[in-house]
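A.,

Following up on our hallway conversation. Structure tokens first:
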């Protein structure tokens, strides 16, 4: 699968997890904690893998493109919102306002990724490279959850990268939270 289709599928999964959270009643505190953990476990590996595999490859060919810096920043903002939700007292009624903000920010980020960023990527990557990146993303995402950003994760994913981007997959380029 091309990286574009892979990312869209993953975005849809994250969107559904956020929608599930918002459907919960205010007093369903245990379910809310579980839903938040499910969002965290799909969102964080998505963002780390997207940065390592996709953003860093684009950065290798378009190092100064403003959309890339902006996309990294948006990941940081979305994760800050998720962390504030994870730290909110389960009995605090403010959780819904924060969850709606997370939904809004994620939707806006996703929209920009699937339009402007994909257009930029399609102008820089061959179809074969987009296929390689899709496989590298699929390989990395579950590993982030299991073993974190370890060097074994990076080594395993490097084998799946298109040759000209193998060196772009560097641990130090992926921001941490
Ligand atoms: Fe993203
Ligand atoms: Fe994404």
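Then the amino acids I'd put at each of the 177 positions:
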């Amino acid at each position: 699968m091309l990286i574009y289709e892979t990312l869209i599928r993953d975005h849809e999964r994250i969107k559904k997890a956020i929608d599930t959270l918002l459907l919960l009643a205010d007093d369903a505190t245990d379910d809310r904690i579980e839903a938040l953990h499910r969002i965290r476990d799909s969102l964080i590996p998505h963002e780390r893998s997207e940065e390592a595999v996709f953003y860093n490859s684009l950065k290798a060919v378009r190092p100064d493109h403003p959309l890339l810096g902006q996309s990294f920043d948006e990941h940081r903002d979305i994760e800050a919102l998720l962390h504030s939700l994870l730290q909110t007292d389960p009995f605090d009624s403010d959780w819904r306002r924060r969850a709606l903000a997370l939904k809004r920010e994620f939707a806006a980020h996703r929209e920009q990724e699937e339009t402007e960023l994909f257009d930029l990527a399609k102008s820089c990557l061959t179809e074969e490279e987009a296929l390689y990146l899709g496989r590298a993303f699929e390989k990395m995402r579950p590993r982030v959850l299991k073993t974190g950003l370890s060097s074994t994760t990076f080594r395993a994913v490097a084998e799946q990268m298109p040759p000209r981007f193998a060196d772009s997959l560097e641990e130090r380029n992926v921001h941490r939270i």
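The domain at 3-173 is CATH 1.20.120 (Four Helix Bundle (Hemerythrin (Met), subunit A)). Curious whether your intuition agrees with the design.

B.
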